[in-house]
Amino acid sequence: MKNALVTGGSGGIGSAICKKLADSGFNVLIHYNSNKEAASRVLSEISTTGGNAGLMQFDITKGEEISNAIEMWKQDNPDNYISVVVNNAGISKDVLMVWMEENDWNSVIETNLKSFYNITTCLLKDMILNKWGRIVSVVSLSGIKGLPGQTNYSAAKAGVIGASKALAQEVGKKNITVNAVAPGYIRTDMVSGLDEKQLKKLIPVNRFGKPEEVADLVSFLTSDEAAYITGEVININGGLYT
Amino acid sequence: MGIEEVKEKVNEFLIEEFELEESQLVPTAIMKDDLDIESLDFVDIAVIVEKDFKIKVTSEEIQKIIKLEDLYNYIFEHYQN
Fold first, then answer.
1. What is the pTM of this model?
2. ipTM for the assembly
3. Which of A43, A141, A208, B52 is least enclosed, having the fewest CB within 10 Å?
């Protein structure tokens, strides 16, 4: 059985990805940092439907914590490896650049971009040795188009896109694909403060997206069928921006 | 372990791991051009060397390996210590 690590596995999009990957036959490692309760709920939902999953705790900004957590998992699973990682965890601290404090910039870059390095370096060697891997990062329209009030978030997500494209070229020969998905407005807590009625007028499909729709796309990218797609950023935004 | 034994072991895993022919494995063969072993392939080599010869390979050292004989010599020298 293949193992998939989903960072931020307890959030709106993250939990949908965890459930979908479990449905697809993966043993899912549901990552959380502080919200163990929410992660445990995802775990029990997966377990009750007959899926395989477990929890993994670490702070994605702390490289040592990540490598310790993964090393512990490896000790328990010496003949196995984590072949799929979905980099989904992230934060936003929206403020216009003119008012932005250095810490708002740094923390968003650390959590959303540096974490790509932290996690990938812990898992990549095993993927190379086993000659199969899938790295999927959840980015954002913000990282492609740039959104006002999100210079930090746009920079971090654009950074992940650049890193994914470069890494895809490094490891393609080893059957490791590296892609990103860029959701537009998806019905999660993150957009709960937004006015869907007004905003949907801007979206050709005329509604916000569902977390399950993002999960379906991520699931496809982690499959064998997606072996020839790499270095791509796939928009999933109802036609808002193409 | 003598140098001949190192050569034999290295050749064995190169044939198996990279689907090379024994005739290609001449000491002066250039890893990248003649054997099509690129930088990323050294990850596999480093792990095998670590496992079979108990030598911890660093990325700095591995980058100095240009020819197959460099790999033989590297392992031979480090295995002695």
1. 0.90
2. 0.71
3. B52
